[in-house]
């Protein structure tokens, strides 16, 4: 079955991501299907495309009203018929509900998003029983499991509710699930026969960094955000009070930021979320209440002001960044005293819950303090191997950018493994370390471990050294943690072999995170979004916002950033050409495209752009060798006549090439040439004109100055103006 033509037709994509194609084929064939796919991996397309292709309506059960709204907006954006997707939840009035029912009955609605609570209502259930249902998809399926990090009791009964409506295939989807959670989901939904798909947890476009949390953490955050003005970001804090404080500090520092937490009234929360989606603010400062319900693809950074309670939460929250495969920077601030604070909060909970909580926190500590590849550490936590040398995204973390020295530790690995074995594999990391350094406690005494010959064989090293070694030995699979027993260390067969036949083991020591040290990194990654014509991108983004406001949808529901970038590369001037742009497709081109192709067409005429043939990207204007020559020689302050002569150009041809350079966003300093042409007052007069003008059209400037300056003088001044203001 060819799934590529419907993919192109509905969504404008030429190829599937990861496991999407296999998952969709499984659903189309009518199988129960279970999907574990990380945030940003393209989960929603897995049920949206089969729903659009199948007869009848697909029911999507989702716990979050905001997320439903986002997805309905996005689906409506690819179709000319508004009724193609609907929400059925407590936010609708009677008229709305009647409209939803009418659209389902007439076969228009392909996707119906419902909250589990709505499905229970007899009024809705009896109506749906009489309709053609294609399948039921359960998003955020980890909410079903008591072992999941976001358990919802109302999810437990879904199997019976679905069976009462219709006997249709069930699709469960989640972004994070340990094996225990997976089994619980399948059992509770009654789909143990499901086709299972688990995508890689690797998000290669995300850069991971941990910095020491000092008293000046807010200053660090302001510095970081100001380097990224105009880009969207989320800052997570653990308490509502801290959210309000940080949002206020950012606002005072002229950063467009809004707070978001459960203590705000619903109206304010919706308003702040919409401001973020509609790009009326750059930053949302939030507790973890924010983000689950958001599907904004161009979040460029996620900052953790406070370290979260588990690596699963951290992974989900950082996963909000770079969902369009563009740049995504994940920065966490870490201080051990925050961990101690979290441990105090747990003191009032039942012992079993405390045990799980402590085990999860220790994983977070390990991630923050490790000096090994952070991606490898994260992947290992989710049961996945990662090659830190050749893997996709191998160099995308602070530890790989600033590697620490390694030393030979095979002797100490041997000591560690033998202590685990000789103490009968019944201790967690903390007790193993106490045994190695010879520190008695009640548990060790009860097992008489202090009388054993191996007690204290590692006292020449510090406890933190041994803890670091345990983490590194875990990741290479010499030992494993027994989850059922809250983290007891057990040897693997590889570890057993190592004791008998040791080999070289290079260890890096953990970060110490002394207050005040700054290990910040600024990167340009291969995943940073490449922009072909910055001037056109700005025009199109402004237009996108205008169109979005008119349509009452977020800008990304009109066109996503990669589509805008692609337009600025390919300059499409017909709807047919626009539908060939990345992520557009026919429906979207027809619905939103008219104003965009008009705008691009005008731009192409105004700047005399050489358009690529058949939308195959070629160099527009200046080739890179000539571009480099012009930049180098203006830097050397060579007369413009000499630069033009040496390349066989007329002066106005040289100016044209310089305009291409400057309009594409590259700096070009020609002040020295202008000083020979115009005095300071004349330059100031023209500069001020461009500053206040509504257009940079040269003819309008000539009219304004009544012929006082010639064409070339004004074009050169426009280059200087763009150099200083635009770039």
Can you give a write-up of this model?
α19 (429-437) crosses α21 and α30 packs parallel to α34. This protein is of the alpha/beta class. 48% of the residues lie in helices and 11% in strands. The chain folds into 5 domains: 4-198, P-loop containing nucleotide triphosphate hydrolases (Rossmann fold, 3-Layer(aba) Sandwich); 206-401, Rossmann fold; 406-508, Winged helix-like DNA-binding domain superfamily/Winged helix DNA-binding domain (Arc Repressor Mutant, subunit A, Orthogonal Bundle); 534-607, Orthogonal Bundle (DNA polymerase, domain 1); 624-726, ATP-dependent DNA helicase RecQ (Arc Repressor Mutant, subunit A). A hairpin with a 5-residue loop joins β15 and β16.
Kindly list the characteristics that best describe this protein.
727 residues; Rossmann fold; 48% helix; globular
What's this model, at a glance?
By secondary structure, the protein is α/β, with parallel strands linked by helices.
Q: How is the CATH topology of the largest domain named?
A: Rossmann fold
- Specify Rg, calculated over alpha carbons: 30 Å
Major beta sheet summary? 7 strands, parallel
Beta-strand percent range:
5-15%
Name of the CATH architecture of the largest domain? 3-Layer(aba) Sandwich
Count of folded domains:
5
Tell me the helix content: 40-55%
Spatial ordering of strands, largest sheet: 3-4-2-5-6-1-7
Ordered list of secondary-structure elements with their pairings:
Blueprint: H1 4-11, H2 20-28, E1 33-36, H3 43-53, E2 57-61, H4 65-77, E3 85-88, H5 94-105, E4 111-114, H6 116-120, H7 122-129, E5 133-138, H8 158-165, E6 170-174, H9 179-189, E7 195-198, E8 206-212, H10 217-226, E9 232-236, H11 240-252, E10 257-260, H12 266-277, E11 283-286, E12 299-304, H13 311-318, E13 328-334, H14 336-346, H15 351-369, H16 374-381, H17 398-401, E14 406-408, H18 410-422, H19 429-437, H20 442-446, H21 463-475, E15 479-482, E16 488-491, H22 493-500, E17 506-508, H23 534-551, H24 555-558, H25 561-570, H26 575-578, H27 585-606, H28 624-635, H29 640-646, H30 651-663, H31 671-677, H32 680-692, H33 698-704, H34 711-726
Parallel strand pairs: 1-6, 1-7, 2-4, 2-5, 3-4, 5-6, 8-13, 9-11, 9-12, 10-11, 12-13
Antiparallel strand pairs: 14-17, 15-16
Helix pairs in contact: 1-27, 2-3, 14-15, 19-21, 23-25, 23-27, 30-34, 32-34, 33-34
